[in-house]
Amino acid sequence: DVVMTQSPLSLSVTLGQPASISCRSSQSLVYSDGITYLNWFQQRPGQSPRRLVYQVSKRDSGVPDRFSGSGSGTDFTLKISRVEAEDVGVYFCMQGTHWPGTFGQGTKVEMK
Amino acid sequence: QVQLQESGPGLVKPSQTLSLTCTVSGGSISSDTYYWSWIRQHPTRGLEWIGYIYYSGSTSGSTFYNPSLKSRVTISIDTSKNQFSLNLRSVTAADTAVYYCVRDLSTWGQGTLVTVSS
Questions:
Q1: Is B105 in contact with A38 (CB distance < 8 Å)?
Q2: How does the average pLDDT of chain A come out, rounded?
Q3: Do residues B38 and B100 lie in contact, with contact meaning Cβ atoms separated by under 8 Å?
């Protein structure tokens, strides 16, 4: 299985400041169709995961534009331009290129 | 807006079969081409994609199972009830987790905790 490694595993952020989470895969996530199936999820306390970003950089409907995804090949990043209180939770990267799809271990974001 | 709701026993004995159903509301399970998944979240091992069924409306659906669970898993769809189901056989304590039903990775149920214990 493809191993997804996130860093940091914990992030303490200041309201209004930027935050960044890194995700690295053990092999390239470029599929034979040329698309990179890399997703980012947010899981707020007590809630189900919610997808924020798919195909590296496409935001899901209703996701604030302060969230942005970037990267290619095996290295990817989720950035929050200005952290808000509602952004507290755990963030996961997930690859859907190679079956079975696999998740990172999660990055816990909390407010300072 | 489509909503998913898991249902089933919260406690299963070791060696028995874990059976969960996902009821789809706000849309037909057979109306378009989606993949309907089961994903579980272990207390310590994180998120694991169990498998999915890909339903195109004209066939009974194609299933894809995580190789680590393939020998024990069956996912099926019942269009007449607008539901899809998970059967996981010969469970052990390692199968204790929150189980989610998911559509296309973009729509998730609220999750249901299943504990395997005697």
A1: no
A2: 97
A3: yes
Structure confidence by residue, pLDDT tens digits, A26-78 = 999 999 999 999 999 999 999 999 999 999 999 999 999 999 999 999 999 99
Chains A, B: CB contacts within 8 A come to: 36
Sort out which chain A residues have CB atoms less than 8 A from B64's CB and list them.
Answer: 99
Cβ–Cβ under 8 Å, residues A29 and A95 = yes
Burial B15-24 (b: 16+ CB within 10 A, else e): eeebbbbbbb
By 3-state DSSP, what share of chain A in percent is helix, strand and coil, each rounded to 5? 5, 50, 45
For residue A51, give the nearest of B46, B105, B109 by CB distance: B105
